[in-house]
Amino acid sequence: MAFDYKKEYKEFYLPKTKPQMVCIPAMNFIAVRGRGNPNEEEGDYQKALGMLYAVAFTIKMSRRSGHEIEGFFDYVVPPLEGLWQQDAGDADSSSIDYSRKDAFSWISMIRLPDFVTQAEVQWAKAEVVRKKKQEVSRVEWFRYDEGLCVQCMHIGPYDDEPNTVALMEQEMKQNGCALDVCSGRLHHEIYLSDPRRCQPDKLRTVIRHPVKKQQ
After folding, report:
1. Cα–Cα–Cα angle for 45, 56, 26, rounded to 5 degrees
2. pTM for this predicted structure
3. Which ranges in the chain are annotated with CATH 3.20.80.10?
4. Longest dimension (CA), the chain
5. What CATH number does the domain located at 1-26+145-215 have?
6. What is the Cα gyration radius of the chain?
7. How many CB atoms lie within 10 A of CB 45?
């Protein structure tokens, strides 16, 4: 049976709808960086997702092409994730205005098994170009060390996230912590639902904010 990260690491991918504190270990991803409205049809965000999935599934199906990756095991491609900020360099996540989607800067990413090295990502990118003639040069191997966070399962439209974030901030303060959003630690979302196939009020999104203990 294929290894499923969502099922094996439920504390990271399937949190409760009540905010909770969690310490996230460093993980490896493939990622694409960009800016702009994620809802724009055929926009940069949509193109980034196409690049990510092309590389992700090329790695997953590598054995079928005769390419052997050391330590490989069969796995389910993990869900899409995103790191978000608005007006790049703004360190205050509370300033996010969901009506100003054109001002978003984002890093879209998909988790990699630990056996996938930077060299294997480069191999997969070359395979995508060779077989599909698809431009994937922006895809990068990306390591993210998140550390202490507050997280919660948000159910509903993306634009309603501020309600869940407010509950997360209460939990953070009750645990003696302060928000620690900066250039290396950002508002983080994990998408467990496909918005093309799911009603907005049923969307499941893990929201995660980096925090630090107050002195």
Report:
1. 90
2. 0.94
3. 1-26+145-215, 33-89+98-144
4. 54
5. 3.20.80.10
6. 18
7. 20
| CB distance 177 to 132 below 8 Å | no
3-class secondary structure, 45 = helix
Q: What is the mean pLDDT of residues 168-197?
A: 95
CATH architecture for residues 33-89+98-144: Alpha-Beta Barrel (3.20)
Quick one: DSSP state of residue 175?
T
Percent of the chain with pLDDT over 90: 90
- Kindly report the number of other CB atoms within 10 A of residue 80's CB atom: 18
Helix (H) or strand (E) holding 7: helix 5-8
List, as own/partner pairs, every contact residues 69-74 make where C-beta atoms lie below 8 angstroms and the sequence separation is at least 24, other chains included: 69/115, 69/116, 69/120, 70/115, 71/114, 71/115, 72/115, 73/3, 73/113, 73/115, 74/2, 74/3
pLDDT digits (tens, 9 = 90+) for 87-96: 744 445 445 7
